[in-house]
Amino acid sequence: MTQAASGNRRPLLRPQEVCDILKVQPYVLRSWEKEFPNLGVSKSADGQRLYRRADVDEALRIKQLVYGEGLTIAGARRKLEEERAATTDELPFEEIDDEAGGASRPISKQTRARIERVRRGLQSLLELLDRGAARAASPANGHQKGASAAARKAPAAAARAARNTGRRKPAGRARA
């Protein structure tokens, strides 16, 4: 974490605090919320937007890419996606800290195998969730579940109305 973001120890930060850390205007932060879906914004009970420290780090990286490296928003998004994809699937640690003695010891093969099984299980769950979300988002046979016939016909009616507006004669003088 950066020094600027680590200065505030609260787990959630308000938008103005994040803007102060990033040294950007609030509208910039709001636009990044829309452009970068991984910039996870929570809402408090009173509807106030809140940011985690990880969100602040992500926003700092976005600022570096856009202002520092001169990338467009789309370029920054692609770069962040590439960076996420480039992260290895290896374990983020090679040793376990001994809490009693403060020394580190290597991870046993059994522990490593157990972690790998858990990881594979989590990945399969994620795939199931992704497939379920994709099915829920795609309408079956061109019809949305629960949608009435009128609701399904509304887009076609709107398209016809738009075509018909092009056929109207220009408004002229009223005849007496």
Task: Give a quick rundown of the structure.
The chain is mostly helical. It contains seven helices and five strands; from the N terminus they run αβααββααββαα. It has helices at residues 3-6, 15-22, 26-35, 53-68, 73-86, 109-137, 149-165, and strands at residues 12-13, 41-43, 49-52, 95-97, 104-106.
Write the layout of secondary structure elements.
Layout: H1 3-6, E1 12-13, H2 15-22, H3 26-35, E2 41-43, E3 49-52, H4 53-68, H5 73-86, E4 95-97, E5 104-106, H6 109-137, H7 149-165
Antiparallel strand pairs: 1-3, 2-3, 4-5
Shape: extended
| Structural class category | mainly alpha
Q: What is the CATH architecture annotation of the domain at 3-86?
A: Orthogonal Bundle
Estimated share of beta-strand residues:
5-15%
N- and C-termini, Cα separation: 77 Å
Quaternary structure annotation: single chain
**Low-confidence region ranges:** 1-6, 165-170
Fill in the keyword field for this structure.
two-stranded antiparallel sheet, disordered N terminus, mainly alpha, Multidrug-efflux Transporter Regulator, Chain: A, Domain 2, 5 strands, three-stranded antiparallel beta sheet, 176 residues, 9% strand
Report on the architecture of this protein.
By secondary structure, the chain is mainly alpha-helical. Among the domains are: 3-86, Multidrug-efflux Transporter Regulator, Chain: A, Domain 2, CATH 1.10.1660; 104-137. The chain is built from seven helices and five strands; from the N terminus they run H-E-H-H-E-E-H-H-E-E-H-H. Strand 2 (41-43) and strand 3 (49-52) form a beta hairpin. The N and C termini lie far apart (77 Å). The model is unreliable at 1-6 and 165-170 (pLDDT under 50).
